[in-house]
Specification:
93 residues, alpha+beta, 4-stranded antiparallel β-sheet, 3 helices, 4 strands, 26% helix, 26% strand, globular
């Protein structure tokens, strides 16, 4: 992963972008390298990844990689983590 490709934004801004798109992870935290991790409880990985990806066209998903989420998991008490960054300034309106 090349973290130099990410635009530096605050955790508050990342959270605002997700909330504006009605994406509400249980937890969102900065990884300190230009990326963020959104944690979803009881959300299958396919859905969690798609939700984050759809929040802004400048979001790039780092993890999970495709081979990690090819099969949907529908177990109860599922916790899904999606790591992402912004490759350009997010669209703020």
């Amino acid at each position: 992963m090349n973290f130099d490709n990410y635009v530096a934004i605050t955790e508050a801004t990342a959270n605002e972008i997700l909330q504006r798109a009605d994406v509400n992870p249980s937890t969102l935290y900065s990884n300190g390298n230009g990326t963020f991790t959104a944690v979803f409880n009881d959300q299958p990985m396919l859905k969690a990844r798609a939700l984050v990806e759809s929040a802004d066209p400048n979001i790039k998903i780092e993890l999970p990689e495709p081979f990690e989420y090819d099969q949907p998991v529908v177990e109860p008490n599922l916790k899904s983590e999606v790591t992402f960054g912004f490759i350009a300034e997010p669209i703020l309106e």
